[in-house]
Structures are given as structure tokens and as C-alpha cells.
Amino acid sequence: MARETRRQRRAARDAGGDATASSRRGRAAQTRPSQQPVKQQTGRKTTQPRGQFIRESYAELKKTDWPSRRQTFQGVIVVIIACAIVGTYLWGLDQIIRPIVDRVLL
Asked: How would you write 15-58 as a 3-class SS string?
């Protein structure tokens, strides 16, 4: 079969000499998208009114469990401390690396 040309294999298959993979499995061959009829759109798209989105968003915001004033203050303090630590670390690293860069590049 390796020495057969494509045309010979197609001719044998069309003559019924070689069963296709789909017929061997016992199912019908699928049609290609170009061979399928064009689907017609039936019905109208349903759109929600614009105000409904605002109402649903407001309802979801009311369900939210917001942090208390104390929790918010604690969160802000944690962020400020973390920024100070990272800033100090980067400043120190810059002070250590600056002389090395000055000697190598300048």
C-alpha cells in the first residue's frame, strides 16, 4: 500500500475496495461545514434593560460584607509598614550596589 499513489487509493476507496474509518466503526461520516446548510437565525435576541444591570449591581453591593473602620485602619497600617520595609530594603541595596557600578561603568 505504501507504493500506491494517492489517485489509486482514492479509486479503490470509491469503488468500495477500502472501507472508510467511519464505516468500520459503524457510524455515519460527518459532513464538512462547507457542505452543511446555512443556519437561519430564528427569533429575536433578548436584551435586558440597561437599568436592570444597575439595580442588580446595587443589590450585590448591599450583600457585600464591608470591613469595619477598625479593620480598614489596620489594613492601611499594614500596607504602609510593608511599603516602608520594601523601600528601606531597596534603598540599602542601592547604596551597596552604587559603588560597584560606579567603578565598573565609570
From this structure: CCCCCCHHHHHCCCCCCCCCCCCCCCCCCCCCCCCHHHHHHHHH
Q: Which domain holds residue 89?
A: 76-106
Residues 75 and 82: beta-carbon distance below 8 Å = no
User: Looking only at Cα atoms, what is the longest distance across the chain?
Assistant: 84
Domain count, the chain: 1
Residue 44 lies in a domain: no
Per the confidence metrics, is the pTM higher than 0.85?
A: no
Give a yes or no: residue 66 inside a domain. no
- Tens of pLDDT along the chain (106 residues) come to 567 788 888 888 888 755 555 555 566 777 676 666 777 777 666 666 778 889 999 999 999 999 999 999 999 999 999 999 999 999 999 999 999 999 998 7
